[in-house]
Amino acid sequence: MKRRSLIREITPTEIKHIRMQLDRVREIGKKAAKSKRRFADYKYLKAVFAAFYAFGDANLLPILARVARDEYGVARREGCHPLRTIIDASADPKTPLRSRSRWGRALEWAFDQEVQPDGLMSFLNANHGIAGCARLANMALPLYRRPREYAWSDDVPESNGNDQFGDLRVRSFAKRRRTD
User: What number is the average pLDDT over the span 127-150?
Assistant: First the structure.
């Protein structure tokens, strides 16, 4: 009996499609990094969000991390959201990690609130910018379980539980050894 791998094969057309989208986002990111305008990052984040939706519609999100690691040298991280993978593959290397994290959390919140790429800029403005959306994401979609002073407050926003593209946090299939 032939064994099948849990990891599906990546076709050259899928790699080409991912590279084309990421290169387009990368160009917009370079322009945003050079720009002196206050809201230049918003156009970059809109391009990241549009690429994320394009990958989701084409069913390329499960292989995005592998292609980004092979083609762009993005480090492999367990539990990394595809939005953060797109940001790491396309952002200027001089961009601080704190900013990349803030961008990723803000876009995760926008996705959870079912915002379309065309409405992203108005959504960011309505929620006090990138930092405001990242703050809301950290309140409603915590990455880590840690006690917070507002944990039992009624002001904590609710997550929509958006699963349009399935479970997006990458989990390792490797079995963990038990040490008894």
Answer: 76
